[in-house]
Amino acid sequence: MPDVAPHPASPYAAPPALRIGHVHLKVADLDRALRFWRDAIGLQEQQRRVGPDGRGAVFLSAGGYHHHVALNTWESAGGPAPAPGTTGLYHVALLYPDRAALAAALRRVLEAGVELEGASDHGVSEAIYLRDPDGNGVELYHDRPEAEWPRDAAGGLAMGTRRLDLHALLAGSG
Q1: Predicted TM-score of the model (pTM)
Q2: In order of start, what are the domains of the chain with their CATH numbers?
Q3: CA angle (113 as vertex; 142, 111 as ends), nearest 5
Q4: Bridge partners for 82 per DSSP
């Protein structure tokens, strides 16, 4: 793949209303991936297209949207997870509407036996980190109201990483 040269002083800026629409993940086994994304995370299956060879895709979402996460085995059926130290997806982040919804998501993944990799308070957000069965990083988080975001002396964001108290999150305090 060719390098892309930086554009000097490009006047273009993406529109402020731009949002990430969905993520499409290559997985080794659709049923195994569904046990994580549908059963543990709680996304609802919107459509499934699987051919006679077992290769296909499943589209999942929250709230009936066409898809937030798609899973496919078109090129990856039975394949291994990416090796550590290689390029690729760091994580997909699922934004919950508030702290209570994040706590409910945490409770659900713990009850499903999903191992957590970490939990951080970034000042602007609280986040829980885990991996799906194919090794893809997953962040479950909620944003604090913008008025509460930490700022430096110049008014810029002052995000950080502190330990998130999961017991306080689950108890609804903190």
Answers
A1: 0.89
A2: 21-74 (3.10.180.10), 89-174 (3.10.180.10)
A3: 65
A4: none
